[in-house]
Write a structure and sequence with these properties.
mainly alpha, about 60% helix
């Protein structure tokens, strides 16, 4: 099995069994803020910083240019979104009528803190190749990455914005989906990268389980 195939196999394990219940409207609206706050504190607010960590470590000019473009868009929105992506994320809770001051002091759940600790370690202390793989593939990637290489593979679902779960089940205004719209618009050490990707899956799944429990959903099957 070649390196790309092993990477895709890891990404295909990035499945949150609780996610259909989130997207199906089974979380009470007064608990939905938990999901958004944890996402914000775990990675959304600092995602441009994580991309920057990969950039400053990278010795390959062509890869640095790709990372620089990613960093510029995440930090400023200057290429597509028009605003920094973390700011656009806050349009979700704002559109749902949540108190945005909650996002100033978020206490991470134990598994969320462990996942964030992994992200910090992977982007700062395991070399540029691991940092780049985690920020460009794992964090914002989905189990559908194979479709980028195989036209027969199932692509990432992109239903009309009017069918977005936050719109359908919680009344989020379409104007608050700017980040969703922006995301739709826009030789390495293989062993270390694969180990980091597998650890990313494990810590991410534990984090998502903790969020689901606090949102009133039972723990998913392993």
């Amino acid at each position: 099995m070649d390196f790309v195939e092993r990477l895709l196999a890891v990404m295909e394990r990035k499945v949150d069994p609780n996610w259909p219940r989130f997207t199906g409207g089974f979380v009470r609206k007064d608990r939905l803020h938990v999901h958004l706050e944890q996402e914000w504190e775990v990675y959304v607010r600092d995602f441009p910083v994580m991309v920057g960590r990969a950039y400053v470590q990278c010795p390959i000019a062509a890869v640095r240019r790709e990372l620089a473009e990613n960093l510029y868009e995440e930090e400023t929105g200057g290429l597509h979104a028009g605003r920094p992506h973390p700011e656009l994320f806050l349009e979700y809770p704002r559109g749902l009528g949540f108190d945005l001051t909650r996002f100033d002091h978020v206490t991470l759940l134990p598994a969320a803190a462990a996942y964030r600790a992994f992200l910090d370690d992977a982007t700062q202390r395991r070399g540029w190749s691991v940092a780049a793989a985690i920020v460009t593939l794992f964090v914002e990637g989905t189990p559908h990455e194979r479709a980028l290489f195989d036209p027969k593979a199932e692509p990432r679902p992109e239903p009309p914005l009017e069918q977005h779960p936050l719109v359908v089940h919680y009344g989020l205004p379409l104007a608050s989906l700017a980040l969703t719209k922006a995301h739709r618009g826009v030789e390495i050490e293989h062993g270390a990268v694969l180990d980091a990707m597998r650890e990313a899956v494990r810590t991410w799944k534990d984090y998502r389980d903790d969020v689901a429990i606090l949102c009133g959903l039972s723990r998913s099957a392993a």
